[in-house]
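CORE FACILITY INTAKE
Project code: CF-77B
Contact: R.S. (postdoc)
Sample description: multi-component assembly, two entities in total
Requested service: structural model of the whole complex
Turnaround: standard
Below are the sequence entries exactly as provided by the requester. Do not edit them.
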Amino acid sequence: MLRNTSGMAKWLLIIGILITAVFVICAIFAPWLAPTGFDEQSLNGEPIPKNQAPDGTYWFGTNDMFLDVFSHTIWGARTALEVVLLSLAFSLVIGVPLGLVSGYVGRWVDRLLVFLMDAMYAFPSLLLALVFAFLFREKLGGGVLAAALSLTVIYIPQYFRVVRNTTVSAREATYVEAARAIGAKDTTIMGRYLFGNVIQSVPVIGTLNAADAIGTLAGLGFLGYGIQPDEAAEWGFDLSRALDDIGAGAWWQGFYPGVAIVLLIIGLTLIGEGLNETLNPALRKRKTAKVTMPPHTPKEVVHE
Amino acid sequence: MSSASGSLPKYVVQRLLLMLPMIWLLTSLVFLMLRVIPGDPISAAVGDKVSEAEKDARRSRAGLDRPLWEQYLDYFADLLRFDLGTTLSDNQSVTSVIVEKGGATLSLAVGAFIIALLIGIPLGLLAGRMRDSAFDVFIRIFGIITYAAPIFWTGLMLIVLVAPTGWPTAGIANDTTLATVPIVTHIIFVDAMLAGDLPAVVDVAIHHALPCFALGLMLSGVFIRLVRVNVLQTLKGDYVEAARARGIKEGRVVRRHAFRNALVPVVTVIGLQAALTLSGAVLTEKTFNWPGLGKELIEYMTRRDYAAVQGIVTFLAVIVVVVSLIVDIINALIDPRVRY
C-alpha cells in the first residue's frame, strides 16, 4: 500500500503509524513500562511526594494525588485505546447495519433514519456525549464502558451516513441486480454483496473518528464526566486536576498528559488522511514511472 | 433558469420549513433522553434534606407525577412561549439563567471567532500562495497541532506562561468592575461601554484576551486548512488564467481574483463551526473559570438537576440550528448558486 503513495502523503502516513504504534505499545505493555500502578501512591516502597517537580526519580514529576505523572500518562494510553476501540466496535455494530438497511430498503425507513441521524449529527458532539455520560453515570458508573457508550452515540450517525450513501449507489449496480435475478434474498444481498463493498470506506472514517474520540474522551474527563480516577488513569481528568495547582506553577501535572493527547490525535489523524489519499483515487497522486526514451540516433541520412 | 426557483424569499421559507422538524426532533430527543433514566429527579436533586411530603409537593409542581405524554405536551406548549421550565435545585426559571449567563458565553464565542478569522485567513492565504514551500509546511503543521490540541490543554499552558506577568487568567472582570457596571444587556463588555466606564471596558477586554485567544487558536486550524485548499483551487481557475493572459500583474491577480473567491466558502464553514464552538466554549469556560452557560450547565449536572439540564441543553440545540440557518441565508445572499 505504501508503495502506491508518493512524497509527502507517504511520509505523513509513516509518521502517523509510528506515533500511534508508540501509544499502542505503551497501552499493551503498561504494567511493565510504568514504574508504578495507575493508582499506586508509592514507588519501590517509598511513598510518592505530592506535587514534586520532575527529577531523576520522577521523570514527569508527581501530582496532587501522590501519583507518578510518568506512570499515569502511560496508563492513560491504555485507557484511551480501550475506550476508543470499544466505542469503535459499538458504533460499527449499530451504525453499519442501520446504514445498510436504510440504503437498501429505502422508502419511509430511509427517510426516518436519515432525519434522525441528521438531527443527532447537528448536535454539538461534546454536549451530546456529555448528556449521555450524565445519564449513564447513574446506571453504569464512571468506567470504561460508560465512557465508550457515550462516545458511541456521537459516531453512529457518521458510519450510518457513509454506509447508507454507498449502499444507495451500489444498490443499482449490475452485480446486485444479478444477485437479485438469481433469486438471492434481501438479507443475503445486504450481508454478502453490499457489506463487502460498503465496508471499504470504514477504515478512513474509523481512524479519523478515533482521533476525534481521543479528544472528546479527554473533554468528558476534564468536565468530570469521563472515567473516574478509581477506575483507570485518564488524561482529561489529569488535566482537570492540574487546573487546581496551575496557580502554584505545577505545570508538569497537565503538560505531559496533554502532550500525550495531542500526539495521539495527530498520529491517528495522519493515518486517516494518509489512508484517504492512498485509498481514494480522486486524491491519489500515484508515483509515475519515468519514461525513458531510447536515444535518438539516426542511423543513416537518406538523401534524395 | 426560472427566477422563482432561485428567489431568496423562497429559499428562506424552504430552509425555515426544514428547520422546524429538526428543532422538534432535537428537543424531543432531549426530553426523552432525560426521562429514560431510572430514579426520581427530585430526590436526585435535593437528596434527603427534604421530607417525603415536601418532595411529593415538588414533584407535582414540576409535573413529574403526570403521564409522560402530558409532560411532553406541556414541555412543547411551554417551549412555544420561550418557557424552558424551572430548575429543581434552586427554583429559578431556566430562561432567566440563560439570559444571565448567556451573555458571557456569547462574548467569548464572538471574540474567539474574530481571533480565529484573524489568524486563519491570512495564514491560509499565504500557505496556499506559497504551496509546498517551507512556510507552507510550517503553517500546515501549525494548523494540525492547534486543531489536535484540546482547548483545555492549550488554555492550561497559556495560563502557565501568562500567570507570572500578572495578566488575569480567570473570570470575566475584576470585582470592582463587576460591582460598578450596571447590568443592562447581561453582556458585560457592552454594559461597560453603555455606562461609558473606560477602565471597566479595558478591564473586561483584558479578561477576554486569554480565553478568546485559546478558543480562537483551536478554531483557526479549520480556517487555515479551508482557505489554503481554496486558494489552491482558485489559482487553477480559468478566470485567474484569463486575468494573467490580460497582462494583469501577478500580485494583483492573486489578491483581486484568487483570494476573494477563496474566501466565499469561509462563510459556509462558519455555520458548521457553530457546534464546535459551543463544545469548545463549555471546555474554555471551565478552564478559565468563565461565568457562562457552559460552566452553569456543568454545575447543574453536578447537582443532578434534570430540569435545568433539559432546559439549557434544549436551548443550546435550538441555538445551533438557528445559527446554521442564519449562516445559510447569508451564504445565499452572497452566492446565488447556493439557492438552487
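Facility notes:
- The mean pLDDT of chain B is 81.
- The interface with chain A takes residues 21-22, 25-26, 29-30, 33-34, 36-39, 144-145, 148-150, 152-153, 156-157, 159-160, 163-164, 275-276, 278-279, 282-283, 286-287, 298, 301-302, 309, 313, 316-317, 320-321, 324 of chain B (CB under 8 Å).
Invoice: internal transfer
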